[in-house]
Specification:
mainly beta; Immunoglobulin-like; 5 domains; five-stranded antiparallel β-sheet; 35 strands; 50% strand; elongated
């Protein structure tokens, strides 16, 4: 303390304190191991109103570190500034290592091991137990934490992606205009991992059998079965680069078209509905085409998607084809039916004059019956039980849609006394 005296004033006293700058911390470099550790670094110099700035951005006297590398701190109290550098050296020689992330095919199994030694404890994210390795087969993130006999703790994570073949829907079931057979098409731009498409056709109710395969990029496959007698249902499934097959698509049913004579003249062009499984109203309209060959069809008119017949006053062209326009249409073409020829119409007209006819046979849903006069048709099973009766003039029908697949017997009696017995196969 220093005293000053003045004649004009009373005594004044001043007190001075000696303040020194901060000193370097005594923190030594650190040797750590593994990937999971915690150390507290202390910059010291408490009680001197110092400020701290760490390499981590913290401004407290102490900093907690969990990673290796060079750490530093700057301490400033206004009377001086000091810096300290701490090196955190980490030994990674016994780190857990599950390898890189992997992408595998469906049904493949991957074995995960840590590839480090002298491990006392393993803790896996997906299973319990002190296991040195595990087998996995589903998509997910898998991790392990290991502790070795030196107390070093490390961890690693691996992501497994399992590629399951996607579902591919049928775009159209139409006809191949080069031969008239059913042609199945799909959008070949959707799935780059697909290599081929497997095609399935319904053999009996809900029983689909493999009938062919086609390269995915082709976008099309043509059937060899005769489509003139009935409609057919198809499903498709993707096969990927691993050879695995995806879920089968919803079925699509082709259009079956035929012609019947009107009374007293003309013809009825009739067809079955174009069907898409799960879609009760798949068609916006049906287009009617005619021509001399399939590759040169000409548009005539259209009818509503709820209509399945069209009246022809005369059969002027060589053939007629019906084309469905799906409401969710993505393709540029219609879903075309089989073709009906002039010979079909003339043949029916002449045939009705002399005999009785049923079609289609085999049948899935409706059996159509034509005669030259008024008639009654009775349908029996193999036990002789009467199942259905239809009375009609020249043309009638019996529904078999609710009956199980099998063989049935149809007895047709005309008003002129003719009796015809036919065997009917229900698909």
């Amino acid at each position: 303390m220093i005293w000053f005296r003045s004649n004009e004033t009373t005594t004044l006293a001043f007190q001075f304190y000696l303040v020194h700058g901060p000193v370097n911390p005594s923190q030594l470099d650190i040797n750590a191991c593994g990937t999971i550790f915690t150390y507290i670094l202390d910059a010291g110099n408490a009680g001197i109103d110092a400020t701290y700035i760490w390499s981590s951005g913290k401004n407290t006297q102490m900093d907690t570190i969990t990673t290796g590398g060079t750490k530093w701190v700057t301490i400033d109290n206004g009377c001086g500034r000091v810096n300290d550098i701490i090196q955190v050296n980490v030994d990674h020689s016994n780190d857990a290592n599950l390898g890189p992330d992997q992408t595998k095919c469906l049904y493949d199994t991957v074995t995960l091991v840590t590839n480090n030694t002298n491990i006392l404890n393993y803790t896996w994210s997906s299973v319990t137990g002190n296991l040195p390795g595990i087998d996995i087969g589903s998509s997910g993130t898998y991790s392990v934490t290991t502790t070795d006999n030196n107390g070093c703790v490390s961890a690693d994570t691996m992501i497994l992606t399992v590629l399951a073949p996607p579902t591919q829907n049928i775009e159209l079931v139409t006809i191949d205009t080069t031969n008239g057979n059913n042609r199945i098409t799909w959008d070949n731009t959707l799935h780059g991992s697909a290599t081929s498409i497997n095609i399935y056709r319904e053999l009996t109710t809900s029983n689909y059998v493999f009938v062919g395969t086609s390269p995915y990029h082709s976008g099309t496959w043509t059937d060899t079965v005769n489509n003139r007698n009935q409609a057919w249902r198809y499903k498709i499934a993707i096969a990927d680069t691993c050879g695995n097959e995806g879920v089968k698509s919803p079925y699509v049913q082709s259009i079956h078209c035929w012609v019947t004579p009107n009374v007293p003249s003309g013809y009825n062009l009739q067809w079955t509905e174009y069907q898409i499984e799960g879609n009760p109203t798949p068609v916006s309209k049906y287009n009617i085409y005619s021509g001399d060959q399939l590759g040169l069809l000409q548009y005539i008119t259209f009818v509503s998607g709820s209509v399945t017949s069209y009246t022809l006053n005369t059969f002027t062209d060589s053939m007629y084809v019906v084309g469905a326009v799906p409401i969710t249409k993505a393709a540029s073409d219609d879903a075309l039916s089989n073709w009906v020829s002039r010979q079909d119409a003339i043949g029916i007209g002449e045939y009705l004059k002399m005999t009785t006819n049923i079609y289609p046979n085999p049948v899935k849903d409706i059996l159509y019956i034509t005669t030259g006069s008024k008639a009654e048709a009775q349908l029996f099973n193999n036990m002789g039980q009467l199942l259905s009766v239809a009375t009609f003039f020249r043309q009638g029908e019996i529904s078999l849609s609710e009956l199980p697949a099998g063989i049935y017997h149809l007895v047709i009696r005309t008003e002129v006394g003719d009796v015809t017995v036919r065997k009917v196969t229900k698909l």
